[in-house]
Amino acid sequence: MKAPGGNNLRARVDHDVSAEVATAQGLAETDLFNISIQDTTTGVTERYLNVSVVDGPRRIDNVLVNQSKLVRVQGALPAARPKDSAVPAPGEKPFGDNTPATNYVVTTQAVDSRPVANSYIEAGLMMPSRVCIY
């Protein structure tokens, strides 16, 4: 399938999660994170709240399979949640090319209707060859 704008996907991570949701999932609050993925060409943004890399009902790979039209996880998940994205300075766009970076490039080598090679999220959520778009 095609992934419009695959070379323009950016992700932001934050740790503004719910302690109540963590308890309900049988996880620690420090296991959870939120992730936003944006196609910077079309502006389409997906946001997933209270997800985890730990086994549970909101494990990120399963959430993306069931809900995302932009990204998938391939391979093993990392042991810990990714770090927070930097807060943009006043006037900066959260998904823009800012210094310091306020987002992570999801893939730099996607071509519509072709397999993705060496794609990544630099945040540590998804390492080389673990993220693909469809």
Overall SS class: alpha+beta
User: Helical percent range?
Assistant: 10-25%
Strand order in the sheet with the most strands: 3-2-1-5
Mean pLDDT across every amino acid position: 80
Number of helices: 2
- How many domains in all? 1
How many strand segments? 6
General shape = globular
Biggest beta sheet attributes: 4 strands, antiparallel
Contiguous uncertain segments of 5+ residues: 1-5, 113-134
SSE topology sketch:
Blueprint: E1 9-14, H1 19-25, E2 32-39, E3 45-52, H2 60-67, E4 72-73, E5 104-105, E6 131-132
Antiparallel strand pairs: 1-2, 1-5, 2-3, 4-6
Question: Would you give an account of this structure?
Answer:
The chain is α+β, with helices and mostly antiparallel strands and 134 residues long. The protein has one domain. The chain has helices at 19-25, 60-67; strands at residues 9-14, 32-39, 45-52, 72-73, 104-105, 131-132. Strand 2 (32-39) and strand 3 (45-52) form a beta hairpin. The protein is globular and about 40 Å long.
